[in-house]
Amino acid sequence: MNQRKSLKELNLLDKFLFDEAMDDPENVKTMLDIILSQNTNLKHPPQTEKEQRTATDNRQIRLDIYAIDEDDVIYEVEAQKENTHNLPKRSRLYQGIIDSKLLPPGVVDFNLLNEVLIVLIMPFDLFGYELYRYTFQMRCEEVPELKLDDGATRIFLNTKGKHPELVSQELIELLKYMERSTDEVSRECKSKRIQEMHRRVCQIKASEKAEVKYMQTWEEKILIKQEGIAEGRLEEKKELTRKLANKFSIEQIAEMLEIDISEVENIFKESQNGK
Hints:
- By secondary structure, the protein is α/β, with parallel strands linked by helices.
- It has one domain.
- It has helices at 15-21, 25-36, 87-100, 169-179, 183-188, 192-205, 208-226, 234-244, 250-257, 261-272, and strands at 47-52, 61-68, 74-79, 116-122, 133-136, 152-158.
- 26% of the residues are buried.
């Protein structure tokens, strides 16, 4: 059994603290402003752990942060600690499911589709070029300067980048702070916005309500493991996977049940096929 970190030891790349911190619109605004080098004005409070699916029997996803600004641009942001070796295609699925819900039935003017920006923040270099930031938009292979302009952007952020000249110092400070959300790292940041974010994060870490919620989340995971899942009983794995499907992502279920992501995906496929 993995040793549980205390709430005070968590960093913003840890899912629980990330979700709690990003319930605060000011933290979401600060993060988006720094990542995008712009002033982001959110239309509504951001939603954390928002479920999206195209139909009740289709594959569902849970978005860490879902926000819309005053220009109706949609932002989906996720902190991803582990390299699940499927992140580019997962971002494609996220974009597809978000897009599928943007137009009401019968609307055929696709120019009404919102701009969508998906951001994944990771403590590893997914592409191997030692960059802090990788931004992807559709372009023509034959004419590289020709942009498709379909309103979709995907950004992958790497906390361990090595080319500071390509990004802002504030973004580097934000990524370092998300990786280690401590007083020490906050003091090293020149950004007043990050220091203010740290003040709000410290309030969460000191909150009895957050502590109770964190303990309940951990205990829920322990109870799941104690139901014989780690012992390898196939039917129990399948049953619990189905029960957890509407509450957790594939990656979270795999972690809790201590099985491979591919095994969870196969169980989902069997369920959809009626087995």
